[in-house]
Amino acid sequence: MSTQIRSRVQLQVDGAQRSIDVDNRVSLLDALRRELNVTGPKKGCDQGQCGACTVLLDGRRVNSCLVLAAAAGGSTVTTVHGLAPDGELSPLQQAFVEHDGLQCGYCTPGQLCSAVGMLAEAGAGWPSLLAGDLTAPVELDEAEIRERMAGNLCRCGAYPGIVAAITESVGTR
Ligand code: FES
Ligand code: FES
Fold it and tell me: pTM for the full model?
């Protein structure tokens, strides 16, 4: 019986094609940080509870600590670095700065990636747990933003600034 425990994985990370040889048990988060030296995504809980490791996998937000790198082969990964590829802050990042939506910086990469993913989900009409009518258009008021960002924890309490920044970026403030 063959016991292959390593895989050659191709990933496009923040616009660059990368190739790694990884143990099949390694998470995408560890592959990014340890193998590829992409340290924007942070390891908080390593079990899907804090959101610090959030990246966009083929445009959808995921907790990278819960995804196996080997299973992500062939995908596009966008981390916080990819949100400002030329070093110029995106409007969302600028709004985080202006509204004091970041303090420690540890959860901020995940918060930003999650916000980008959340805005895309809302734009596609995906309902949240708050939705009464699952087919109604999504209105990103404060309660909706808080619900949709609930997977990302901020221990120091920058939530009001984070919500304000996202609110501004969707033009509802
Ligand atoms: S490190 Fe992945 S959710 Fe906390
Ligand atoms: S800004 Fe990161 S924990 Fe609060």
Answer: 0.94
